[in-house]
Amino acid sequence: MLDALIAVSLVAQLRPDPLPPLPRLEVRRANSTIVIDGKLTDAAWARAEAVPFQFPWSNQTGAKQKTTARLLWDDKYLYIAYDCEDAAITAQYTRRDDPTYKDDAVEAFINPNPAQTDVYLGFEMNARAVMFDYVYLIGKYLFKRLDLDGIQLATHIDGTLNARGDKDRGWSLEVAIPLAEFEPLFRAARPRDGEEWAINLNRWDGTEPDRRLSQWSDSGLVAATPHNPRRFGIMVFRDR
Fold this sequence. Notes:
Layout: H1 10-13, E1 24-29, E2 51-52, E3 67-73, E4 77-85, E5 105-111, E6 119-126, E7 131-137, E8 141-143, E9 152-158, E10 170-178, H2 183-186, E11 196-207, E12 210-215, E13 233-238
Parallel strand pairs: 1-3, 1-13
Antiparallel strand pairs: 2-3, 3-4, 4-10, 5-6, 5-11, 6-7, 7-8, 9-10, 11-12, 11-13
């Protein structure tokens, strides 16, 4: 959530309780075509491990609605899918680089060079399939007029968007990010088997004041914010 980005030492914001170890995920190669339609029905997704999200902040009052993510890759794309339980789906923003994180939204923060923790790419996508993408230089600069090329993005809504008085079931999202867009940080055309990137996956759910953040890797921060690249999990590319 970009309102929570502050240029002070992240170490000072860490919770004092012991933090869990950083999670790791093996990302397999897609063995068949993935059609980006938001429905997660393509056979390739059956090969991907389901990644559950956790709820690190007990002081938040929003419902704890389940989120799982899956990742795959091929020679051209990194694929990410999110499956979100949601009883009241809300998304108001409709234009590229709108503050989608204020809606029901999911995020991917990706650092293809874990040896450094200062720069990463952010992808924030709401239930309308609207994207806010940027380069973030931690604590200093946010380059939000990025508009990376060739990204494919779609959502599928099981319910009614922005409708009051009914009960929705959830929504899902698929995004295909060209591997070429990571080349300035990664300095290679594509990953090799065993290559490790740092990543975190997040979800903003609900509307204020009952709003909740869930994550794959606990950011470890006192405030409910996902922006701590030192606590990103590790994904390992597998080419077998």
